[in-house]
Specification:
The protein has 173 residues and is an all-alpha fold. Among the domains are: 77 residues, no CATH class; 30 residues. It has 5 helices and no strands. α1 crosses α3. The chain is elongated. The model has no long low-confidence stretch (mean pLDDT 84). Keywords: Membrane, Transmembrane, Transmembrane helix.
């Protein structure tokens, strides 16, 4: 059996080996930048100036006409531009659709959580209302005192008025 003369372990990967790593989304990001530029007024202005200069030079130049009147080369340039621009724009739209889909899913999850929280709070509020329904309130106590005063008659009116005043003060303060 041959011996390992390099003194390196064969059961471990090599270290220090440089790997060329490429970001898989670099082309998609580039296409978005190009598509964004193609949709600006700046691009239209630059393209318009280039076309006007192209046509003017080819119509007025006596020597060196590279694209005479039917402007076949100019049409070829426009066709090539359209052939590349359309897929780049579609790629940028697909990436935007993916971002919109993720955003929509997050919004749905947030809405579901908000709905669940609202339903929980509504149940808690209903239970508090039920619990408070059994608590004696100031108005209920006053009405019971008034009924008691009516039953006792007018003989103890002064004492009842003083008691009612004390209760009102303690309830208000």
């Amino acid at each position: 059996m041959p011996e390992n003369t390099t003194h390196r372990r064969l059961d471990q990967p090599r270290l220090g080996r440089a790997r060329f790593e490429v970001d898989p989304d670099w082309f998609a990001r580039l296409s978005e930048r190009i598509a964004r530029f193609l949709g600006t007024g700046r691009f239209l202005a630059i393209q318009t100036v280039i076309v006007v200069v192209w046509i003017a030079l080819n119509l007025t130049a006596v020597i060196g006409r590279w694209d005479p009147y039917p402007f076949i080369l100019l049409n070829l340039v426009f066709s090539t531009q359209a052939a590349y621009a359309a897929p780049l724009i579609l790629l940028a739209q697909n990436r935007q659709d993916d971002r919109d889909r993720v955003s929509l899913e997050e919004d749905r999850a947030r809405a579901a959580q908000t709905k669940a929280d609202t339903e929980y709070l509504a149940r808690e509020l209903a239970s508090l209302r039920l619990a408070l329904g059994e608590v004696t309130t100031r108005d209920y106590l006053r009405s019971e005192l008034d009924k008691l005063c009516d039953r006792l008659g007018g003989a103890q009116t002064g004492a009842t008025d003083r008691a009612r005043t004390r209760i009102n003060r303690s309830a208000d303060g």
